[in-house]
Specification:
- This protein is α+β, with helices and mostly antiparallel strands and 600 residues long.
- It is 42% helix and 9% strand.
- The longest helix is centred in the middle third of the chain and has 33 residues.
- The structure holds adenosine-5'-triphosphate (ATP).
- Adenosine-5'-triphosphate binds next to strand 3, strand 4 and strand 5.
Length: 600
Amino acid sequence: MGCICSKGILLGHYKIKGRGLKRSKSSKRFAASSRRDELAVTADGGGHDGADRLIPSPHEIENEVGDRKGDDFNEKPSKSLQRRATMDVQLKVGKVGSFPLGEKAAQVVAGWPSWLTAVAGEAINGWVPRRADSFEKLEKIGQGTYSSVYRARDLETNTIVALKKVRFANMDPESVRFMAREIIILRKLDHPNVMKLEGLITSRVSGSLYLVFEYMDHDLAGLAATHRIKFTESQVEQMHKIFKLCGSPSEEYWKKSKLPHATIFKPQQPYKRCLLETFKDFPSSALALLDVLLAVEPECRGTASSALLNDFFTSNPLPCDPSSLPKYPSSKEFDARLRDEEARKRKATAGKVRGLESIKKCSKESKVVPMSHDNADFKASIQERQGQSNPRSTSEKLGGTTQNNVTPSGQSAEPSLNGSSQIGNANEGEALTVTGRELDSSSGGAELTRQRSFMHRRASRLSRFSNSVAVGADSLLDCSRETGANVEWRDEAFVARCNYQDGGESSGKHDWSHHLLHKPMSLFKKAGEHPGRESIASYSPKKSRIHYSGPLLPAGGNLDEMLKEHERQIQNAVRKARLDKVKTTNHGQVGALFYWPNGR
Ligand SMILES: Nc1ncnc2c1ncn2[C@@H]1O[C@H](COP(=O)(O)OP(=O)(O)OP(=O)(O)O)[C@@H](O)[C@H]1O
């Protein structure tokens, strides 16, 4: 039935190709019979013609059920069987197993019984069943363990075939599956020396299944029984070697075998079994097992399961001395789990470091975070600003007690008061904005205290949230998407915000990281274009940024060091601001100065 095809067939697209087939002898035969099926199906309600035809719809098939005659050779399906099959079709279509719903439905529509489609969908996939009435049963030619084999004529092709009728005990799904395995394998085999399975005979109302094979004139036992067959010398010699070791079969066995030419193999003198003597050096348990497995008469050899119960596998000496087994360090399931966990953490950390390195690269590529604490830059910047004394300087512009810090993007950065739920900027360092007014000598001491307290608060927040940042880092550091300015950092745990807490001096909050990380440098290139350009003290060189990896704050004394460093920087800034103020005659406000908390 190789002529019918298409995997992944959906209901309504189950095609039968009657032509254009590979014309092997068997496929020709089956192609012809398939065409008949096709015609029968079409006549039953399909209304199609031509080479490619569709199986009729389930509705059409349902109409067909009542019309069908018994599909077995000798019997009509009983009324109850018909009822059951119809019910099966109604209830089981498309509901069973792992086979795709559409295909299962298509199989039922194609005429397969539901007891088969339910558990053996793969075995029949792409085929349609042959009808029993397209064969003429001739005679029984063989009997297997679970089947009877008949010689039959395929009325479609007028060829002789072998029909193997499979017996199922009450459609037991296990038996059906077992048969399905054989069908699947047979369908895959395509070799001149292997009997070709050409198709299956059944119908939706049938409780039987026939396998259609090309007919073979011989089987091995039959060949061995013919007078003309001569075994080669080596074959006979082989037999005698076996008899010499295992003993020749008893007279009774020869008689029972009914092999007419047993004399060809039958040694003139019976051989005595010498297995035990030959392998006397083997452990007794091994010998005992060998003795069973090499029994001359098949029924005495036992089964694989009984062999496994043999003492050989449990008694001393065991198959090998345990001391000769390779030695490994002690390891329990629990240890292994811990090791896995460790490895996972290491991997996550490595990934995070990689990620942070990439973000560093990304930041560089997108030319963002133009912040600086560098002294030289800082000084130059202040001098530049002093020279320009831009009236649009934020501090100047806003003046008074209301301060409105300006981000590099020129947007108003309103320090936040509700920072308790916010995370300190862990990624790119914190931009600590200090206005010129704040650094005024008169207010410098108070400001220093305020900044110190701020740093302490921030440090504790950083510490508290460090884990969240670590977790979020990996997923956020996809640099490939982030070379542009419109990068979105979705994970709030990682998008650290610099919320300036100022005890009521100002309110609101501002997402610093957004501006610092994502504002493209091109926007700042021309100072004149940027409203806040003049108020930015300077830009930070890459080296001064903080790239946290793992816990944001190192344990123990490092925190103190960090805080000390912050204080030192603040003092430096204050000192410098004072110095500049004294040096210059310009008493205008100094614009916003940006610091990195641990900058140099
Ligand atoms: N295609 C065939 N053409 C001719 N004779 C066949 C064909 N297939 C099977 N037979 C005959 O039917 C007998 C039984 O075959 P069947 O395949 O049912 O049994 P088996 O394979 O010998 O045993 P089991 O059922 O345990 O697999 C064979 O020994 C053979 O004589």
